[in-house]
TrEMBL record:
Protein name (Swiss-Prot/TrEMBL): VOC family protein
Domain of life per record: Bacteria
CDD domains in the record: VOC (cd06587)
Signal peptide: none
Pfam families membership: Glyoxalase_6 (PF18029)
All residue ranges annotated as the Glyoxalase-like domain in the record: 5-115
Phylogenetic lineage: Bacteria, Bacillati, Actinomycetota, Actinomycetes, Kitasatosporales
Length: 125
């Protein structure tokens, strides 16, 4: 069994560059590349991120988004790293039930979050 998360994008190459840099702490790499698809794969059992080229730019809010635990306790520092590679921060750090997160957008405007689990808490998996 495998989970593949598909992300529509106008420029798959540019998005691959961003997402590979964003996911570097999780050891993602390029996988299948056959237009209109380009896959980014992590170590098993990590889901595959499939970039699908579409002609239209993103419009409106995502109905689904990625939540990334990149192992950073300093979420502001992680958001700054992501901004340096092309992300845009959409919210300040938020807290709920011990979880902390920051909402960002990739270079094409797709929302995602970086988060940290509560100290000593149960990870999401």
């Amino acid at each position: 069994m495998q989970i593949v998360v598909t992300l529509d994008c106008v420029d798959t190459e540019a998005q691959a560059g961003f997402w590979l840099a964003a996911l570097a702490p999780l050891d993602y790499r390029r996988g299948f590349d056959g237009p209109p698809y380009l896959s980014l794969v992590g170590p098993a059992p990590a889901p595959t991120l499939l970039l699908q080229q579409v002609p239209e730019p993103k419009q409106g809010k995502n109905r689904m988004h990625l939540d990334l635990d990149l192992g950073a306790e300093d979420l502001a520092g992680e958001a700054a790293r992501l901004e340096r590679i092309g992300a845009r921060t959409l919210s300040c750090e938020q807290h709920e039930r011990g979880f902390r997160w920051i909402v960002l957008a990739d270079p094409e405007g797709n929302e995602f979050c970086v988060f940290a689990t509560p100290p000593g808490g149960v990870p999401m998996k």
